[in-house]
Every structure is written in structure tokens, then in C-alpha cells.
Amino acid sequence: GCGHGLTLEFLRRLGFENLLGIDLSISWRLRVREALTMYRERRLTPPYRILRGSISESSIPASSISLALSISTIEHGVDVDRFLAEVFRILKPGAQLFITTDYWCDKIEVPDSIRAFGLPWRIFDRDQISRLLDSAARIGFEPREDTIPDCSEAPVVWQGLSYTFIALLLNKPPLRSPSETRQDYGL
Of 20, 71, 88, 98, which residue is most buried, by most CB within 10 angstroms? Predict the structure, then answer.
């Protein structure tokens, strides 16, 4: 869910190269930003690649990605299990998935009428994050921490709802022994 490409641009300015963004729709703003960057930097190639598609089912080759970021995306109607399975497929052994999402410890009911980017929206609660981490572990990810933080402040207010964010870091384990086959990792 690269949206308008702000994270792609941020990562590029930090020195990351060979960046790839994927989104259900590619905004004209993102295409203009890409073209202006090429013009200003006198580049013949775009500063990053952009694919139109689903983060839960992509055309990205297996075991080809060194780091995957999902910034404020999975709360917008994403099937989390399919998403995690797809990211596990495309990550290289030893690579990581960094996720941020809207979060509050206790369940916050979001009315169906509230949509973001034309998509459903939810605020993950402690139980949902716990299920996400369980699903990630079943797929093969190794979460960095087993604890889910308590909520004390709700710095975000949108559509009359108050919440915060949670950040999760999941590791795809490296190949450890000859008994682990390359097929286990989608290679």
C-alpha cells in the first residue's frame, strides 16, 4: 500500500536503493512525483518502481525482497493471513517485515460508514494483534517481541475515534541447516 509514495521517497532519501512500491491504485500524484524527481535529478530511470496490485497476491518473485514495510495499510480491508503468507513468500531468508497499524488495547467499533481511501477501516485491538502474531508464527515468521504494549495515550483522533499505532517487526528465519530445503522458503 504505497499510496502517494511518501514512504518510498523517505527511504530513498535515507539511501535505500532498488525500492518497489505496490498499491491497489497508483495515484497521479505519485506518477507526477516520480517524473519530477527524474527531471530534477536528470535521471533516465525512475527513483523507484511502482506496481499496481494487491499486497496479498503479487507478481513479485519468491525470495527476492530484503526488507518489506507495511505502513498503515493492513487496517484497510487487508486479509491479514493472506498478506502475511505473501510477504513470507517474497522475502529472502533472514529478511524482515516491519508493520505499523492503527491500534488500541480494547476493541473500538468502527462504523461501516467510515471508510478510508474508499476501503473498510478497523482499529486493531490486543486480541487481533495477538492473532496476527500467532498467524505469523504459523506461517514461519519469528516475531521480535512477544509482548503487546498497554495503551496509555491516544495521540491520534480521526473520525471521532481516539487510538494510537503499533509497530511490529517479524523475521523470516535464515536457512539454518542442509535439512531445511529451499522449497520451504519458496526458492
Answer: 88
The model's pLDDT over 140-150, given as tens digits with 9 standing for 90+, comes to 999 876 678 89
Of the CA atoms within 13 Å of residue 111, those in its CB half-sphere come to 6
Instruction: Report d(CA 70, CA 67) in Å as an integer.
Output: 10
Asked whether the beta carbons of 94 and 121 are under 8 A apart, the reply is: no
Length of the chain: 187
Task: Extract the C-alpha cell encoding 128.
Answer: 487481533
Cell numbers at residue 153, please? Answer: 495515550
Q: If you write DSSP's letter for every residue of 66-83 in order, what string do you get?
A: EEEEEES-TTTT--HHHH
Q: Is 185 helix (H, G, I), strand (E, B) or coil?
A: helix
Q: Give the C-alpha distances (Å, rounded to integers) separating 106 from 94, 133, 149, 159.
A: 33, 17, 12, 18
124 DSSP assignment: B
Whether residue 177 has pLDDT greater than 70: no
d(CA 5, CA 169): 21
pLDDT at 179 exceeding the cut of 80: no
- For 45-88, the pLDDT digits (tens) are 777 777 888 889 998 999 999 999 999 999 999 999 999 999 99
Annotate 134-172 with b (16+ C-beta within 10 A) or e (fewer): eebeebbbebeeeebeebeeeeeeeeebebbbbebebbb
